[in-house]
Amino acid sequence: MLLCLAERAGEVVSIDDLLNQVWTGVTVSSDSVYQAVASLRRQLGDDSKQPTYIATVPRLGYRMVATVSPWVDPPDAPKPRPRRKFAYMWAAGAVLCVAVIVALVIYTEGPTSRHAEAPPQKSIAVLPFLDLTDKMSHEIFADGMTEELIDKITKIPGIQVAPPTSSFFFKGKQISIAEIAKRLGVAYILDGSVRKSGASLRVAARLIRAGNGYVVWSETYDRPWADLLKAQDNIAGEVAKALRASIK
Fold first, then answer.
1. Across-strand partners of 193?
2. What gap in Å lies between CA 159 and CA 176, rounded to an integer?
């Protein structure tokens, strides 16, 4: 995804183009693009409202706004200059690697990690859901969706849930899923996003096993925008029901 955007820096790359280039031969929905962009922003320390790397172009796609240039060997280097595509790959890869390393070491506060013991097998933290609406003006609803999910999952017998104060500490912070899970002492992470199209609301949720980073369950829920409280309650109930079978 990063390479695809970097190769067309400054241009708007549509959702369809990203699906065709990044997921060639694989049938996935546009949710995969939204989640991948959100993950890139998290790793790069980017702000969707004031982007320095990836900007959202409402209803069109995404644009790499950072300055991108091909890797050039020093004049006295014995090796020939790599081809353009591989040069972009090296440059983009280097940026991402540095961003990931920095993200893992810059924070100094927050919930204490439990390094000495393995997390309970049936334990989960719900990260604040992302507001991916066109103008990103529904953060309050996204936060309410997160709290409703925590409330519903807490009522499932046998599952331990990280409290809201701990989960919301990581809102907007550039920390990997694995590190968040370690610091909260949980085996699973639930994250997701909120989008809006006309009078329709779409909430996407996914469950990640922190130990290996695999997505073990995901689903999208479409509801009318008219009654948001009812939508939150209904979606949270369905997610909680699905997690009963997914968290083992």
1. 130, 204
2. 23
Q: Which one is predicted more confidently, 42 or 114?
A: 42
Q: Is 109 helix (H, G, I), strand (E, B) or coil?
A: coil
Which residues are CB-contacts of 221 (< 8 A; sequence separation ≥ 6)? 202, 203, 204, 205, 235, 238, 239
| Domains of the chain, first to last | 2-105 (1.10.10.10), 123-246 (3.40.50.10610)
Give the β-pairing of 130-131 and 188-197: parallel
Which two three-digit tokens encode residue 56?
């959202």
Could you tell me the pLDDT band of residue 115, with boundaries at 50, 70 and 90?
very low
What pLDDT score was predicted for residue 81?
Answer: 54
Q: Hey, what are 201's tokens?
A: 């609301």
Kindly report, residue by residue over 25-41, the tens digit of the pLDDT. 777 677 777 778 887 88
- Backbone dihedral angles phi then psi of residue 96, each to the nearest 5 degrees: -65, -45
Contact predicate 63/11, CB 8 Å: yes
